[in-house]
Amino acid sequence: MAVTEPDRLALHAAARGALGPEEGDTLMASLPPANTDIATRQELERVEAGLRADLERVETGLRRDIERLERAQSELRTEVRTAIDAQTQAMTAALAAQTAATATAITTAVDAARDRQQRDMWRSLLVTVGAILGGVVGIVRLLG
């Protein structure tokens, strides 16, 4: 049954007459406004159950997505590590070839040097360059 505003006013007047003005006002203030939809406990429990089911579905989907992302992240790490290893090996090989070419060039220059002082200078340079390049190769290997 729909309660109209005149019905509420009549109830208010009757409550004031039966209970007194202050008590009648308190009673009417405690009642919900006319034509207000009030949910029952069962309705709220049904809505709660529906929301819980929705949240469980979302949680399940999120867990699946997280697992999929973790697998993809692991695969990506493996690919990056493989690429870094291959690049390190290529750089080490190139550096070794460059070291050998430099050593050959210096050795050739030493052999071509006419006097002993020039040969000693070239040999010293060869040792220094070899030490530097050996250090670089060692660093590249450590990075690999």
Mind explaining what this structure looks like?
This protein has 144 residues and is mainly alpha-helical. The protein has two domains: 35 residues, no CATH class; 105 residues. It contains four helices and no strands.
Q: What is the count of distinct domains?
A: 2
Mean pLDDT, as a whole number?
A: 87
The major beta sheet can be summarized as:
none
Sequence of secondary-structure elements? HHHH
Distance between the termini: 83 Å
Comma- or semicolon-separated keywords:
144 residues, mainly alpha, 4 helices, 87% helix
Describe how the helices and strands are arranged.
Blueprint: H1 5-19, H2 21-30, H3 41-112, H4 116-143
Helix pairs in contact: 1-2, 3-4
In brief, what are we looking at here?
The chain is an all-alpha fold and 144 residues long. The chain folds into two domains: 1-35, no CATH class; 39-143.
